[in-house]
User: Fold these one by one.
Assistant:
Number 1:
Amino acid sequence: MDDLTLDEALEDLESAEDFLNYFGVPFDAAVVHVNRLHILQRYHNYLAQAGALPEDESARRTVYTELLTRAYQDFVTSDALTEKVFKVFHMHEPQTAFVPLSSITLAVAPSASTEMPAAGGCGCGNTGSCHTSEAALRG
C-alpha cells in the first residue's frame, strides 16, 4: 500500500485493524475486537464533523490519523453503551410526555336501561336450566 495514493489506499481498507495499521495507530486487539464497528462509526462521524479537509495529501493524512486515534481512544477510556454511537442505544431512553388535564376523560358507566342477565344466568333466555347455572356445570 506504500505505492498507492492516500485515496487509493483508503479504498482498500476494510476493517478497523486495517485502518489502525495503515495510519500507524497503536492499538489493543481486545479493545478493537469488542468495539470495531463503534470505532469506525465514530471515526466516520469525526470526519463528517471536520468539514473541509486539506487538499495536501500529507496534511490530510495527519488529520485522518488524529481523528482515528481520537475515535479509538474513545473506546479505550469508555465503552459502547456509554458512548452511544449507534441509534439503537438511544431508542429506549426515558421519554417525557405532557398530557393536559383537559384531554383526560372518564369512562361512562352503562345506563340503567341496559338489560343485565339475571343472577346465575347468562341472559340466553333459558329459564330453568341455563347452560351457565351451577346445576348445568355440575353435570
Number 2:
Amino acid sequence: MGRASQSLRQILESYQISQNKLAVAMGISRANVGRWFHGLDPSAENIAEITKALKQLNPDAARDFVQLYLGDILEDEAGEG
C-alpha cells in the first residue's frame, strides 16, 4: 500500500467519510475510490482531485490528507538556507 493510499484510508476512517461520499463529490465511481482505499495509489492528478473533494466535504480532512501525504516538506525546506 502506497503512501497516498494509506493517507486516504486514514482520513476517510478518521473523519467518517464514506468511499461513496468521496466518489460522489469527485464525480467518479465508488469503485475507483475503493481501489485507492484498498492499496492502489492514485495518480498525482487524482490526488489533487481528492484534495478538492475533501475540502468540499470537510476542510480539516483535506488539510490532514495533504499533511499525511506530503508531511512537513514545506516546513523542512523553509528552514533551510
Number 3:
Amino acid sequence: MIPQNFAEWQICITQHCKTPLTKSFAEQRLAVYTQPQLPETKKFIELYGQQHLNNIIDWLQLIAHA
C-alpha cells in the first residue's frame, strides 16, 4: 500500500521500516529526491509515480524544517 497522507507515511517509515524520521534522514533523502536526473530518483518515479515523489518531498520538507 502506498501511503496517501503524512500520518500513513510516518507509520510506514517509523514502524514498518524501523527508520527514525530525523532531520538528518530527511535532508539526506531530499538531497536525492529533489534531483530528478539521479538513478535512485528515476527508479522511485518508475515504481511509485511522480505524484507520490512529490508527496514524499513535501513530507520530508516538513521533517527537515521542523
